[in-house]
Specification:
Layout lengths: L20 H5 L8 E9 L4 H9 L5 E9 L2 E8 L2 E9 L3 H12 L6 E4 L5 E7 L4 H15 L8 E8 L3
Antiparallel strand pairs: 1-7, 2-3, 2-7, 3-4, 4-6, 5-6
Helix pairs in contact: 2-4, 3-4
Length: 165
């Protein structure tokens, strides 16, 4: 028996208020402060309903990611009522210029313009305009004109929200 270890005392490895392992197992379960939802096989006609969810009040942070094939994505963020769009594009292509053109036509200047290290990809960040109709029109135009997507394209929508805790 080790004279320096008192096996009758609570271990430092157990949380405060727990003397035995069973105390840890019986602690009330906490629900996660965030949720993730992924939907696939939807088209351009479904963009509006996902954008409405992004604009709902309640959560401190909401994210919507729209993807359709490898290395093509648009991420929309609502962080404490500040709306931002991140567009991932292959560098130095007509696609990059088309995406920049869509935002430019809306009178929006980039707040982020960075190359991704090791890849020929750029991330372009833009503030989003006020109003659901303006955002829906901009994102639909971005997907159709900027990325050249057809109406029947298969999109994946991933959404995530957090209350900040």
């Amino acid at each position: 028996m080790n004279k320096f270890v008192n096996f009758g005392k609570r271990s430092v490895a157990l949380p405060a208020g727990c003397k035995d392992l069973i105390d840890v197992l019986q602690q009330p379960k906490r629900h996660p402060a965030s949720t993730l939802t992924v939907r696939s096989a939807e088209g351009l006609a479904d963009v509006a309903k996902h954008l409405l969810r992004l604009l709902e009040l309640g959560a401190k942070f909401r994210y919507l990611v729209i993807t359709w094939d490898e290395m093509n994505a648009v991420q929309l963020m609502n962080e404490e009522a500040v709306l931002t769009a991140l567009a991932v594009v292959h560098e130095n292509t007509h696609r990059e210029q088309a995406v920049r053109g869509v935002f430019g036509a809306a009178g929006l200047a980039p707040i982020l313009d960075e190359a991704v290290a090791g890849l020929a990809v750029r991330v372009l960040g833009y503030p989003l305009p006020d109003g659901a109709c303006s955002i829906e029109e901009l994102i639909s135009d971005l997907l159709r004109t900027g990325y050249g997507l057809a109406e029947n394209v298969r999109l994946k929508f991933g959404s995530w929200e957090s209350d900040g805790s």
